[in-house]
Amino acid sequence: MDKDHDDSFNARLKAAERRHGLVEEEKKPDPVQAADQSLASLALRAGTEMISALVVGVAIGWGLDHWLGTRAIFLVLFALLGGCAGVFNVWRLVRLIDGS
């Protein structure tokens, strides 16, 4: 087939798809709304990273204390380790977003 014929067909096909609503037009996002949305998602993810690391650390510490019959030694130790891991995860997240 002729290349001009193919180009003409593709142009008419895309125009027909747009006319019938089969292809969505690209809309440019509002930069202010996008910044607010990304900031909110970043804060939610950072909070989730901190809480989840702390919960895992406390659960491991409590489980070890319960299993070994000790008095909150591992709970305190793993709570501190979980908090440190949470801070480290948030630091890595912010560093990736910042581009450093």
Please explain how this structure is put together:
This protein has 3 helices and no strands. With 100 residues, the protein is mainly α. It has a domain at 30-98.
Descriptive terms for the model:
single chain, 100 residues, mainly alpha, 0% strand
Task: Give the structure's gist in a few sentences.
The chain is 81% helix and 0% strand.
- Overall spatial form: rod-shaped
Unreliable spans: none
Structural class: mainly alpha
Q: Report the count of strand segments.
A: 0
Query: What is the share of helical residues?
Result: over 70%
Secondary-structure blueprint:
Blueprint lengths: L2 H17 L11 H38 L4 H26 L2
Helix pairs in contact: 2-3
GO biological process, one term: proton transmembrane transport
Pfam family, one: ATPase_gene1
Protein name: ATP synthase protein I
